[in-house]
Amino acid sequence: MNRIWTIAWKEIFLTYSDRSFLLILVTPLVLSTIIGFAFGGLSGNTLNIGAIDVAIVNLDEGTTANNQTFNYGTIFTDIFIPTDSAVTDANQCVIDGVVQPTEEQQPLSEIIQAVALISADAARAGVDDGTYQVAIIIPPDFSQNLAPVVGANIDDTPLPKTTLEVYASSGDALSGDIVRGIVAGISQQFVTGNVAVAATLNTFIAESQARPGFAVRFLAAQAAGTFQPDFSCAFSDALNTVTIQNEPLTAIQKQSNFVQILVQIGSAQALFFALFTSLFGLLSVYDERKNGTLQRMMVAPMPPSYILVGKILGNYLNVLLQVVLLMLGLTLIASLVEGRLLFIWGDLAWVSLLVVVISLSVSGVGSLIVGFARTQQQAQVVGPLINSGFAILGGAFGFTLPAIVGQFSPIYWGSQAFLSLANGNTDIGLNLLVLLVQGGVMFIVGSWLFNKRSGI
Amino acid sequence: MQYMVEASGLVKTYKRPDGTEIEAVKGISLNIQKGEIFSLLGPNGAGKTTTISMISGLIKPSKGDAKIGGYSITKEAIAAKRLMGVVPQEIALYPELSARRNLEFFGQLYGLNGKELGKRVDEVLEFIDLSDRQKDRVDTFSGGMKRRVNIGVGLLHRPQLVYMDEPTVGIDPQSRRRILDTVFKLRDEYNMTVLYTTHLMEEAQELSNRVAIIDHGQIIALGTQGELTQQVGEEDRLLFKVGTQTIADALLKNVETTVESVTRALYDAPSQTTDNGGETIPGMITVFAKRGRKALPHVIRVLNEADIEISSVEVREPDLEAVFLHLTGRALRD
User: Fold this and answer.
1) Among A41, B2, B81, B226, which one has the highest count of C-beta atoms within 10 angstroms of its own C-beta?
2) What is the per-residue pLDDT across A174-226, written as a single tens digit (0 to 9) for each?
3) With 90 as the cut, is the pLDDT of residue B98 above it?
4) Buried b vs exposed e over A114-125: b needs ≥16 C-beta within 10 Å?
5) What is the Cα–Cα distance from B99 to B263, expressed in whole angstroms?
6) What's the start-to-end Cα distance of chain B, in Å?
């Protein structure tokens, strides 16, 4: 084992003592900083992202309480997909003939581009194939569970329990988080609104019991159909106390756009350049063969597999170290720009786990390319092309491609996971799994091919 | 007798891209005694490096096996490799590392660690006379210094057997001399066995206890230098420059008949060169003798008795070049 470490350590030492390697370390930092300044600026807390594609499936069957029909699913859907009149009235609510002032806010349609679907399965499939970023599925008993409990003591009434499904791709955790935040806000409003409706109706009932005359008029109006209270304002997005704009969605959104871009582009750039380290690290076996150091290792009293394992381990550690250094560099840049010490990556334990897994994936790509290439020259030409392809798919250059295409790149899964963690969301299980499987397969197949090519 | 190396029937076959096979080594067998310097002499491409690569376990023989100190290189490779140090033909070092770091790295691969490793590195640096440059990067060294570090790496774990594959290629005469002295030192002071490959006849002659001449993947002659030259029946040549005197045939006959081991005596009369205004080339008596040095004083006595003035004498022993020429019909450097 000592000898494997000796070889691995030699790989690391040679890589990091090479002055040209400094370029590989500095370039992603510079690029990310430039992109951060160009697109993020230095101020502003609004997340500058495009509209999130959302599919809404309303399965709500509605309910009737106290002769009033409620369908919260429809109200919910209307908030996301407003009708023309709803759009007109979006910023005002009339109560007793008085237009209520509302906060000026960013319309939901600017953040979310929603379409209504009938099938929950179709919506989930749409998320899986990248058509939508998030699907919201409203269950059939949504209204039934939420309907105001009239006649009971409000304080003793248990809060309604219902489940809204927000189905998001783990590869695009940020969109999922944003939509979850909005859904939570609106749902909260339903609960609050229901309490208000129930309290109003309870007041009517109490008043009727106390004053028989009022009760007669109330019952007559109800029988004549003239008692048609409009509670929709209680559920209007315009009166939402938990507003979309002001809601502190996640930790990272408290930072400036610059920091957010630094996390997303910086991590993708770090992985992109780590792909090169992996590629050229393994290609060094050809140089070692040419100058005889490989043969010298092979005549040492140890199994030849030690050399292979040592080189691959060294390459893996090189990648890991590079990713860690770049993350520290990006942290330093963010701290300098923000003027305070700022750890931009989120939970340290999860970040560490992600770095370990993503490094496996990145070094797997390197060994696969070197393993498949027939010659050193072929790998030197094809390798950078493949790496660049992964970088484009993974969004390392500041633009993203549809998830269905992007998910073929480990950079996509890695950078999205970094963003999720920076976002305070540790739900990166799928990302880790994909990277582990993707990386593991490439690593094993690549190492096997690399062994054959290197002739060790 | 216990041999350090016992190679039997080593064959190495390679496949060409067109699918046909080429036999680079065709059944080499040899034994090397402990403590001897054994040279593999042959022209470039003869199969020396392939042979040494099989014996050192770098490549697997297609057929045959070799034992190092009793361990089979194919079946007990690790035990066999522990006994040997390898000095490859190329400078197999990391140029960006210092001499010391190179030695430490390869020492660790041989299982040396900690203080023991440090001690051995110090010893080797002293042995190769590079203690004062130990912290300098190898790529700042001269060719000769690099060669010395290259040798040092092979000696670090105190092997019983050292393979040296053309270690003097491409270096200046002074560095070459130093390396040849090192080889002697390894045998004489450290009792190491040295397997040395070269295409330089002079090196093989100077260094070796025994020589195997290899050509086209086969050993065509093996033995001490004397045995080899006797094998091909070459005789020593005694060359006497005798100025412009006239030499009678009777004198030459006298030399042939009276001096033991002399087989023939020839005379080349003085001549004039046609260029540079006609320089005179002195006359030369050439005497062929099976034991030239023994015959020399007797021939001189006969010539003195005949009042022949000798201006210079040269004894040319039959050399490996002549043996190679005799066996292959080609010069070693062809």
Assistant:
1) B81
2) 677 778 878 877 777 777 766 666 667 667 777 777 777 777 777 777 677 66
3) yes
4) beebeebeebbe
5) 57
6) 37
pLDDT tens, residue by residue, A319-331: 999 999 999 998 8
How many Å apart are CA A426 and CA A421, to the nearest integer? 5
For B76, the closest chain A residue by CA position comes to A301
Kindly list the structural domains of chain B, giving each domain's residue range(s) and its CATH number in brackets, ordered by start: 3-231 (3.40.50.300), 236-317 (3.30.70)
Q: Strand A98-100 and strand A93-95: pairing?
A: antiparallel
ipTM attached to this prediction? 0.75
Residues 6+ apart with CB under 8 A from B281: B270, B271, B272, B273
**In what side-by-side order are the strands of the sheet with B161-165?**
B84-87, B161-165, B193-198, B37-41, B210-215, B218-223
Q: Is B194 helix (H, G, I), strand (E, B) or coil?
A: strand
Nearest CA in chain B to A302: B78
pLDDT band at A45 (very low <50, low <70, confident <90, very high): very low
Q: Determine how many CB atoms are found less than 10 A away from the CB of residue A94.
A: 11
CB < 8 Å to A375, chain B: none
Neighbours of A151 (CB within 10 A): 13
Which chain A residues touch B92 with a CB distance below 8 Å?
291-293, 295-296
Total domain count, chain A: 2
Which residue does chain A place closest to B56, by CA atoms? A299
Residue whose C-alpha is closest to residue A111's, from A161, A200, A49, A55: A49
Residues A241 and A337 both lie in one domain = no
Cross-chain Cβ contact A292/B88 below 8 Å? yes
Q: Which residue in A3, A17, A295 is closest to B92 by CB distance?
A: A295
With CB atoms and an 8 Å threshold, state whether B108 touches A3: yes
Flag if B97 and A13 touch (Cβ within 8 Å).
yes
Identify which of A2, A295, A298 has the shortest CB distance to residue B113. Answer: A2
Min distance B37 CA to chain A CA atoms (Å): 21
pLDDT tens, B144-186? 889 889 989 988 988 999 999 888 887 788 888 888 888 888 8
The dihedral sign for the CA sequence A119, A124, A126, A131 = positive
CA torsion B135→B139→B145→B149, rounded to 10°? Answer: 70
Is the same domain home to A214 and A181? yes
A315: left (phi over 0), alpha (psi -120 to 50) or beta: alpha
Q: For residue B208, which amino acid is it? A: S
A389 and A311 together in one domain: yes
Name the phi and psi angles at A306, rounded to 5: -60, -40
Domain hosting residue A227, numbered range: 52-248
Residue that is last in its domain, among A196, A230, A248: A248
DSSP A134-157: EEEEE-TTHHHHHS---SS-GGGS
- pLDDT for B218 equals 92
CB atoms within 10 A of CB A207: 12
Residues A299, B53: Cα–Cα separation, whole Å? 9
What is the C-alpha to C-alpha distance for residues A41 and A341, in angstroms, rounded to an integer? 19
Which residues lie below 8 Å from residue B60, measured CB to CB, with a gap of 6+? B54, B74
At residue A10, φ and ψ (nearest 5 deg) are: -60, -45
- Distance, CA of A252 to CA of A345 (rounded, Å): 9
